[in-house]
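ARCHIVE ENTRY
Sequence with per-residue tokens
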Amino acid sequence: MGIRRHLVPALIALVIGLASSNAFAAEATATVSFGQWMSSPPLDRFPNFQGSPTTNVHTITPNMVTIKAGGSVNFIISGLHNIVIYDDGTLPTDINVANIIFPTNPPPAVPLINDPNRRIYRGLDPTANPLQDRVEVVNFSEPGIYLVICGVLPHFQEGMYGFVRVLP
């Protein structure tokens, strides 16, 4: 009887633990905010204010997402940002910030990182249509931890990067 009394709570804890671990399982998709418009002080973008460096938060949120292999990440891009993704195991210190190009449609003539080493995806030129925020959806077919940076050089230098963890 004493063993049964201790076994039942242990089984209940095991079932609850297994159920809750599924809540943290990797999903097929994730959403990442790539830059954010400020609301303090108030910002009025109407009719077509494209923003400035002081009206956009240069951050990637969340900094790490986890998906299943074959899944995708929806990058919601607010403002002048350029998604660049590097292969599994690449670190921010591996990026050659001396290798730059300039956008095809200045102004602004802001330098963009052009390091092709281990780069697996580079998004649209952020100056091609700077008045519109956009979404870029990127598929990750292989497990690993992928570095995602803002290719706008000053933004990357401010720490605008994060990671996508892809599980088997």
User: Anything to note?
Assistant: The two ends are 44 Å apart (CA to CA).
